[in-house]
Give the backbone structure.
Amino acid sequence: MKRVDVAIVGGGLVGCATAWRLSTAGASVELIEAADINAGASGQNAGSLHFQIERRFLENGDALAEQASSIVALSRIAVEDWRGLETALNADLHVSMAGGLMVAETADHVALLERKATREQREGLKVRTIDGDAARAIAPYLSASVLAANHSADEGHADPRTVTPALAAAARAAGATIRTHSAVHAIGRRAGGGFTIAGNGFSLHADQVLIAAGAWTAALCTLANLHMPLYPVALLMNATERTAPMVPHLVQHVGRRLSLKQTHAGNLLIGGGWPSRLAQLPGGGFDLSRRATMIPDSLSGNLRAAIDVVPAISRLNLIRSWTGVTAISADQLPIVGQVPRMPGLWIAAGGSAFTLGPTFARLVASAMAGGPSEALDIVSPARFEHLNGFMG
Amino acid sequence: MADILDVAIVGGGPAGQAAALHLAGRGLDIAVIDEQPRPGGQILRQPPASFTVPGWLAGRGYARLKHQLARFEALDDIRWLGGCSVLDLAPTMDGLSLLAATPGGISRIRARHVLVATGCQDLAVPLPGWTLPGVMSAGGIQAFVKSQRFIPGERILLAGTHPLQLIVAEQVVRAGGEVAAILFAQPRAGMIATAMRHPLIALRRAPDLAAAASAMATLRRAGVPVRFGAPLHAISGMDRVTGAVTGMGEIACDTVGLCYGFVPQSALPRMAGARMHKAGPAGGWACAHDHWLRSSVVGLSVAGEALGVAGAAAAAAGGAIAGIGIARDLGLFAPEQAERMARPHRHAFDTHRAFAAMLDSIADPTGHLPRPDAETLLCRCEDVSFETICGAIEQGGSANAIKLATRCGMGACQGRNCEPALLRLLGDVGRGDDPGFTARFPARPVAIGDLAESG
Ligand SMILES: Cc1cc2nc3c(=O)[nH]c(=O)nc-3n(C[C@H](O)[C@H](O)[C@H](O)COP(=O)(O)OP(=O)(O)OC[C@H]3O[C@@H](n4cnc5c(N)ncnc54)[C@H](O)[C@@H]3O)c2cc1C
Ligand SMILES: Cc1cc2nc3c(=O)[nH]c(=O)nc-3n(C[C@H](O)[C@H](O)[C@H](O)COP(=O)(O)OP(=O)(O)OC[C@H]3O[C@@H](n4cnc5c(N)ncnc54)[C@H](O)[C@@H]3O)c2cc1C
């Protein structure tokens, strides 16, 4: 039977980036993807490179916001990873880091911005709070309703269509085997160490396994008889027709769900975490094999938020809306690292892993090879060990 | 409008009208929605009410359809929602929900039953030069002639495989236009042989054949060459069409009408999640249905060309069956009564569909489509070339993966134009079972400002 150092389950950004890092470092790697490379969240997302603390961490009270601010340490590393990625891959990923603005429209939102900036500064992230006029001086397209903004000079966006395929190509070039249209159906522990990974028509031995299967990660963990508190969520995205350059920044909102940017092709992408409806299984449970459906109020709410912040959007045509499915963990932070009770089994899923994925990949690859892993401590699956007391 | 309609019919062509005629007068809340301001559909595309066209569609073949249209327009208990584009169709707990762009803004329409009768569109055929101004679909030329009596060119070349181009050419000539030539890519002998294999079907539809024969005669009198085994290779011109490179040499013209067949308008049933299957040889998707033309989605029926392209008479017969079926499901007819009422329409439906199948094989563009060259755009919304797409196909992905990698199908037309060409290319490399693009909202581009107010 074929034997590899590492088997990776999932051909999204996280799996492909880890395959690239590992094989570049000399490991033998096989990546197994159920569909096509980039078919999951990595190819459906908004492409925001957001390093400021996300609104979703701020809306559930100060205690959670405080806990979540620890993610800033990883965001700071991610800034550097993204700055080097195009050069490292020798590929055009349409990375643009022209800065990002998180805006506020009410006094309450302004207070939220200020508290957020204090946390970020404490963690060493370069963010400043500016008033509405200063924001409009940087971004004249912003509406008069914007009272203040946090500005991060590093934020921006990249092209989800090209990033993951470029990572997969680089992994292949470095010697990784990439198997598509092959779902993993079994993950077994071998006596004496290592794992057997199998699916339709293939099986292999691997010393270590990384499950990087996005929204499917919890289901794959069940194959190893483990609980992993990751839940699928379906989000809405919208694209306008192409238009002349008007929004060079990443624009987000601290009090409303909104993310907005203009792609290199000229379309404005409008998202921000508005829910869609996951397909259901007849007996209960979610069916991730079927497309999630749009919720009408999400559509109008998302577009209204966009127009309120950037009024010129009102006259543009919407040409496409889509739903994408990603994973959120029980405490909203990503789950990345080795499962303590199952040495050799690694997880990397959850969170905003377009922004943070290249960083997770680099850190996991290095930790798998025995390198330091302290940077991952805050996101380690160890924090959920109590759920697996009767598992494994 | 009622909070929830009993029936919403999308499309006011022959199929939608026939269904409405069977549902009207029974106390139901019914709306017929069409993006055209006036009913008629493709075949009876009506000139705007404000301007009359002398002898509008005087031909014999249209008499029945015009009669049906007049009866439809006389109905007084059906709401006609003209100028309204349906953007979305989704199942709900108690029926279906539609989102429509109306002249007064976006409006949500809920209905217990929906009939999709949205017709078909011309197959888009990418070939070198096809994006030059002056290249149109034959149907597009016909639409100009029919609704405005406007001839969109001084010297029109028609090329393709579908006999409809004879009718279009005749209409152009009768309206006083000049047709440079009509080119059928397939040899005449093959067409005749196909027809001869189905003599009974051909006989039953003698009027249609007579229409084609009379069109041929008109064209001959006007001195218009009709050529068979004469493929179109490329369209030439700098900033607009000046000629075409064909199997008969270079032909000078300022307009080219392409006529290789039709594909169903399938966006709405696909968005609703209905089971689809491959439509005729020209490509596209047709909605799977039972014998009341109900789709796999509860409450959603489909009639007309959206079921698979079969012509106006089949569309009208199917519309009648679907209308009776909906009335039956609403409890207005007992099952046996519905069956009795549907019988003559089923007979007509089957006959016309058999003819359509024969026409499909006569007009089959497989093997006769022009070849794009490396720079030919397959997706003209997003400027994606044939070469780029071939490169992506070699990577081995599905149509969705190729869309993601190349932007092919990501533009304003939602892939309506490029999907058949892409699926054909996948078929050529043994991947003909690809399920195609995932259907996405909205079915037509719509202003964000309007949508934002819809919630
Ligand atoms: C609409 C939307 C917008 C988003 N916007 C942003 C953003 O702006 N910025 C940001 O940072 N993040 C964003 N995210 C989150 C981000 O997209 C994800 O965190 C990231 O792409 C996850 O990458 P991944 O590789 O972990 O998972 P995925 O890309 O989902 O990949 C997982 C892969 O595993 C495969 N798989 C599943 N089961 C099996 C099996 N049994 N065997 C083999 N393979 C299997 C799947 O087919 C899939 O390809 C967004 C997400 C969505 C849905
Ligand atoms: C350009 C063209 C020319 C044709 N010419 C002929 C001909 O000369 N002879 C012939 O036998 N057949 C012709 N056909 C075939 C013809 O379509 C059918 O014979 C017949 O019209 C089909 O009837 P139907 O009711 O299925 O659809 P149609 O008559 O096409 O009616 C469908 C209606 O639905 C509406 N619609 C579609 N999508 C939406 C939406 N999302 N929202 C709101 N409204 C919508 C359209 O505006 C249209 O009025 C032609 C087809 C095309 C495309």
